[in-house]
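LOG
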Amino acid sequence: MDHPHQQPGSPPDGIVTATEPLELERPDEDPEFLVLRAGFRSFAFPVTVGFLLWYLLYVLLSCYARAFMATTLFGHVNVALVLGLLQFASTFAIAAWYARYAELRLDPSASLLRERYGRPGLVTPRGAGE
């Protein structure tokens, strides 16, 4: 028998519908997800801090060590130019390093979680270009 406060067409009290997430369906509580998140953070945070310190060094040298930065290495190439180009090179090197790290250590766990908790038709970053 229906309860007086129950909406027409809604399931009886105590029955969970497919639209309500079950406590067990929370991917952020899955141990595999916690390992995945820790793996990401163990790479991203130290590398980000390192790069920001490297960039800050470049800026500080440009501001306070002008004579050093103006030192000619050969021809018209000075220390400032070389360090500036190394900023670009290090950016691309870090991106390649992360792509390799993610492919080997993060993507397998992410794929497993996506299969376990994913929704049909979910477009993944790797699958978006295919």
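LOG (cont.) second protein
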Amino acid sequence: MKKEEIISLFQSYEDSVCIIDETECWSARDLCALLGYQQWRNFTNVIDKAKDFAAEMTSVNVQAKDLQGEASITQEHIDNNAAVRKMLTERGIIPENLPPAKDVKKVERRLTSEQKKMLKNNNK
């Protein structure tokens, strides 16, 4: 993602904020549109995109703030992830309560790969 795209996405994100009782919040439907999803119910993809967004925010801020060293960059990344998580939980999306579909698929692929290796080793 180019710096200009990130800045544009960030500005769109900021422009879509709603203030309710002095608290910033975003509509899940608005966020999905901002993040390129057609169906607002597809939260697992939105969360993956949110993690990517937080990482991209860190990347841009490291350059913009001229952050140096592991400690300051790590803190920036933590702050960005916390901000994204706060926004998600305020909208009722709790990441750990979502189905672990991707994790299950990763384990299945690893298991299949290990089984193939074992079969090859047994055939030797």
